[in-house]
Amino acid sequence: MISQLAGNGRLLLTINDAGEWNDLFYPYPGQFQHLREMRLGLYDVDRSSFAWLRPGHGFELEVPPSGVGSFPTTVWRGPGLTLSAEEVVHPSHDLVLRILRLRSDERRRLRLFSYQSFKIAESLYQETAYVDPSTASLVHYKRGFYFEFFGDPAFDAAVCGEHTLKGLQGSYVDAEDGSLDGRAISHGAADSVLQWNLDLAPRTEATIRILLAVGRGGPAVHRLRDEVRARGAGRLEAEAKAYWQAWAARHLPERPDGLGEAAERLGRESVLVLKLSSASTGSIIASPDTRSLAVGGDTYNYCWWRDGSYISEAMDDCRLRELANRYFRFARACQSPDGSFVHRCFPDGEVGSTWHPPPFLQIDQTASILSAAWHHVERGADPDTLLELWPMVESAANFLTRFRDPATGLPLPSFDLWEERWGTHVYSAAAVVHGLESGARVAQVLGKETSPWRSAADELRASVLSRMWDPGLSRFVRSLEPRDERIDASVLLALDLGLLEPTDPRYRTVVETTERRLWSNGVGGLARYEGDEYYGRENPWIVCTIWLAATHLALGNRSRCRELLDWVVAHATRTGLLPEQVDAGTGEPKSATPLVWSHAAFLELVARYRRTSGAP
Predict the structure, then answer these.
(1) Does 553 fall in a domain?
(2) How far apart are CA 585 and CA 525, in angstroms?
(3) 151 and 40 both lie in a single domain
(4) Which residue segment(s) compose the domain that 191 sits in?
(5) Three-state secondary structure along 573-610?
(6) Angle CA(172)–CA(176)–CA(181) in degrees, nearest 5?
(7) Nearest Cα residue to 376 out of 397, 359, 393, 361
(8) Least confident of 114-118, 126-130, 161-165, 302-306
(9) 207 shares a domain with 75
(10) 223 with 328, same domain?
């Protein structure tokens, strides 16, 4: 499972809970994942003993909290020896610095090994790895993607080999006798090992920097390698750290009153997750987690317009306005000619994979773009930005106005926000109401005509309240066409979008009914809907629990809101990452971790909590 992240909007590096590099995305977060495996090993020359720095190999692992302004760090402790690895990505160069510090209680002669294998462009084979003695570097490349390793100090030996085919395990085996004897070049399923020889004085720290330059084409990465050497790796490390510390000082949220230090730490980590999940293109991926490949054959490494829009709102509230600006430019470039937004897109803007038949729609996603655009205006977007966004807003609002059943005024059927069921859903309808109202507000700021969208929103709201509220059940039905009466937590998000005023008695009834039926009596937290079986039976979801907290806050139940926020904080990982859901039996993270929407929802709710008045 992912435990730490580092990146710069082009590179995204994830580190797993064993302290190893897990994913390496380039040229955008979420596209492409190039790494197969990377591990560190130590050979004690005097004891003739070797160990990979992995659980069960004689080392204890510690992952200190990092957070914004510090850097992902892993510490391995063995008998009389400590090795720490700090992972730093340079903000303006596509350069990863892996800073290793070793300290021994006694004089030790060691050999440090770094093993790496890739699946460049997300496929094995057809790769080349070679050692260049003239530049003291090692390169992996395929189809224009180049990955060049070098060191400060330079490595003492390097070999290339193969894995997977012909019965070969991998060139890491070559390191396990403490001596590298392989080739200087390999191709196909290529891998490699680097070696440094160390003579550690007692209680004296030795530092080795493993540097990785990434780029499109050999000349680009070679120039970056030469620049690092000319200026000094330490100088590039200092630059990167200074930038990230300055960035943190500007963007750290204030501690929320009454929520404590743990909530503050989670808020800081959440801001960083938003930053690192945003690409230079403006795309915002749902999660960098790739584990779902083994379960469902696909990942969360896409930009969903619903997730992206809610995340962009949190960005606006965290002084990440430029990232929100980029997101809207990306959305405008990806909008369909009819004004709608299809299911999801790759980070480069191409249409993503889908299990929906044409026209690939979840209608609330198009509506979410409009709601986020108005939020962007409210948070101070520049008028020039509004003019740039206006064609997108106008086209989307016109589409939503047309995409309705003339007999009922409700939206035509599409897939729900859980992406599972076809129909006319209460949350989707509420999102369209809010989207049209938001579009009309943007239009009003620019002096444009607003009445068609306001009229459509009024008609739609009236139809939802008359057709989707069941007096006999004293609640909203989940959907029509087909009718589905199951209780669904997304109705809480519909309330939060203004479907009902908190003073309306139906508001409290919906909140109480939803909480009573969907609350997990074992570990706490709110499930998505009755009978949910995605990764378990009615697992509680982070965003659903936050929606419940938001509705309690709107009702004036500030203490219950705080309890629910405390539950969210308690179910972050030890490194401050929020999952999509937690296991209803054990409380352990399930599914995508981190889910960026979970972090955005937490930040948004904390901001609201701070703005409210009254006793805690």
Answers:
(1) yes
(2) 12
(3) yes
(4) 2-249
(5) CCCCCCCCEECCCCCCEECCCCCHHHHHHHHHHHHHHH
(6) 75
(7) 393
(8) 161-165
(9) yes
(10) no
Amino acid at 393: V
- CATH number of the domain enclosing 189: 2.70.98.10
**Sheet with 108-118, side-by-side order of all strands:** 49-52, 35-44, 108-118, 190-200, 157-162
Based on DSSP, count helices (H) and strands (E) in the chain, helices before strands. 16, 29
Contact 529, 513 (CB under 8 A): no
What is the CATH number for 478? 1.50.10.10
Q: Specify whether the CB–CB gap between 587 and 572 falls below 8 A.
A: no
Residue 498 lies in a domain: no
Nearest CA among 98, 58, 54 for reference residue 80: 58
Taking only the tens place, the pLDDT of each residue in 423-462 is 999 999 999 999 999 999 999 999 999 999 999 999 999 9
Q: For the chain, how many structural domains are there in total?
A: 3
Give the CB-side neighbour count of residue 124, counting CA atoms within 13 A: 10
Residue reference for tokens 């009466």: 485
What gap in Å lies between CA 229 and CA 187, rounded to an integer?
28
DSSP letters of 151-188?
Answer: EESPPSEEEEEE-SSTT---THHHHTTT----BSEEEE
Q: Are 588 and 579 in contact (CB under 8 A)?
A: no
Q: Do 447 and 564 share a structural domain?
A: no
Tokens for 327? 């997101």
Q: Which two tokens stand for residue 135?
A: 């530049």
Give domain status of residue 493, yes or no: no
277/341 same-domain check: no
Residues 423, 370: one domain? yes
**pTM, rounded to two decimals:** 0.96
Same domain, yes or no: 33 and 182: yes
In this structure, what are the phi and psi dihedrals at residue 350, rounded to the nearest 5 degrees? -70, 150
